[in-house]
Design a protein that fits this description.
Belongs to the HypE family. InterPro entries: HypE, PurM-like_C_dom, PurM-like_C_sf, PurM-like_N, PurM-like_N_sf. This is AIR synthase family protein. By secondary structure, the protein is an alpha+beta fold. It has two domains: 123 residues, PurM-like, N-terminal domain (60s Ribosomal Protein L30, Chain: A, 2-Layer Sandwich), CATH 3.30.1330.10; 182 residues, Phosphoribosyl-aminoimidazole Synthetase, Chain A, domain 2 (Alpha-Beta Complex), CATH 3.90.650.10. The chain is built from ten helices and 13 strands. The strands form two sheets. It has a seven-stranded mixed β-sheet, with helices on both faces. α2 runs parallel beside α3. The radius of gyration is 19 Å and the shape is globular. The two termini are 23 Å apart.
Length: 329
């Protein structure tokens, strides 16, 4: 099999084939595009999500905290605690494991999240350190936002710039190759992108504003996130290439590695759909968050408009980060 997430059709079949019990307390359950499950606990609802870090080699502790807590933010909730599983190869040292846990603790402390449990193991089953985090969050009953809530004629909003996480991973894992293409200032800026990975602030603002759907843009990039929202909501989308926010550095690296930035892992950017896109964009900007309306939710079809030409977008197979040739390192 190819490296990366399972494609949408295979994943949905596995989920549907293995769902024997459905409890009434579970208000939102697993499906393609739904990164969080929501359980009714009376006045409050608990939100749960889990994800590993597999595509990066550096700062994996920091990445693990933010990509998981971002899922809770995308549901309009507040992350409370995380449970961390560390699978370390037999070549690891105790200092390396402690360094990753220190990263996790430092990032969790910045956003007020407690480490409440987990598991640490050295195993020959992995050839590099793997971190998997389960995050627990909360929201008031009835206030959670689903991926599946997108409605026809919703504005599609993207916060910050796409490709933030992918750019950061590339600059760290392929620095020797990239040094020949980027200036020292551009490399410094790229390495600072790890400080832009959290979407907790925009999630809170959008949740309070009242939106139909939110989804953090992770593996599969913007196109992957759009398909997940569209499939979960039984809708389509039309986006405009010239409106998609992307850093010049990301464009340069995409040209260098011959990858599509629209399909590049993009933690740090939130996809939001709402009937009042212009108003929400202004509110986000007033709070220091760049936001852009890039298109509309449609009843059907998946279209990218480029130079006034409508292009039908194919279902994404895997993130572009996995399409890089190892010799480029």
């Amino acid at each position: 099999m190819e490296e990366g997430k399972l494609n949408f059709e295979d994943l949905r079949k596995i989920i549907l084939d293995n769902k024997t019990i459905k409890r009434e307390e579970v208000k939102v359950r697993n499906d393609v595009g739904e990164d969080c499950s929501i359980i009714d606990f009376g006045e409050c609802e608990a939100i749960f999500s889990t994800d590993p870090i597999t595509g990066a080699n550096k700062d994996i502790g920091k990445l693990a905290v933010h990509i998981n807590c971002n899922d809770i933010a995308s549901s309009g909730g507040e992350p409370i605690g995380i449970m961390v599983t560390v699978l370390a190869p037999i070549s690891s040292t105790l200092d390396e494991i402690n360094k990753v846990m220190h990263e996790i603790d430092q990032e969790a402390s910045k956003i007020g999240v407690e480490i409440i449990g987990g598991h640490t193991e050295v195993t020959s089953a992995v050839n590099k350190m793997i971190i998997s985090v389960t995050v627990i969050g909360k929201t008031l009953k009835g206030k959670a936002v689903k991926t599946a809530g997108a409605e026809e004629d919703d504005d599609i909003i993207v916060t910050k710039d796409i490709g933030i996480e992918g750019t950061y991973i590339l600059i760290n894992d392929y620095e020797e190759t990239i040094k020949r293409e980027l200036s020292e200032e551009e490399i410094i800026l790229s390495k600072s992108l790890i400080n832009r990975l959290s979407v907790l602030k925009e999630g809170r603002i959008a949740g309070e504003f009242g939106v139909n759907s939110m989804h953090d843009i992770t593996e599969g990039g913007l196109i992957g996130a759009l398909f997940e929202v569209a499939m979960a909501s039984s809708k389509g989308f039309k986006i405009y290439n010239d409106k998609i926010p992307i850093l010049d550095i990301t464009k340069k690296l995409s040209n260098l590695f011959k990858i599509d930035p629209l399909r590049l892992i993009s933690s740090g950017s939130m996809l939001i759909t709402t009937k009042n896109g212009k108003e929400l964009v202004e509110i986000l900007k007033e709070n220091g968050i760049k936001a852009t309306v890039i298109g509309k939710i449609c009843n059907n079809g998946n279209i990218l408009v480029d130079n006034n030409k409508e292009i039908v977008i194919e279902v994404p197979k895997r993130d572009e980060i996995y399409n890089l040739i190892p010799k480029n390192k």
